[in-house]
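Researcher: We're reviewing a set of sequences before deciding which ones to prioritize for further study. For each one, I'd like a predicted 3D structure that I can look through quickly. This is Winged helix-turn-helix transcriptional regulator. If possible, include the structure in token form so it fits the rest of the review sheet.
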Amino acid sequence: MLTVATDIEVLARFGRALADPIRCRLLLALRDAPAHPADLADTLGISRTRLSNHLACLRDCGLVVTVPIGRRTRYELADDRLAAALDHLRAAVVAVEADRTCPDADEKGCC
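Model: Here's the predicted structure for Winged helix-turn-helix transcriptional regulator, in token form for your review sheet.
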């Protein structure tokens, strides 16, 4: 039986994806253009193994998809609206208070 994710589940999934700075950087890079893993690893300055783990997380969250191109695989955002959502979310957070930072979870038990 197919179940439809609730609004809370969908937002929590998006939040989990955004909770890691590397995944944020990946989403922003893919917002600009689809890319191959080797190129993304070079752009972000991380190992391919580490990149692979983060891409798998984003794939599992349904935020990115793979597109086979010959013998290579390219990654892209699962939906064009995600690029706009990232832009709007960033703009909204900056508009509220650009000079704030989120405390570490250990510090206050939030975020």
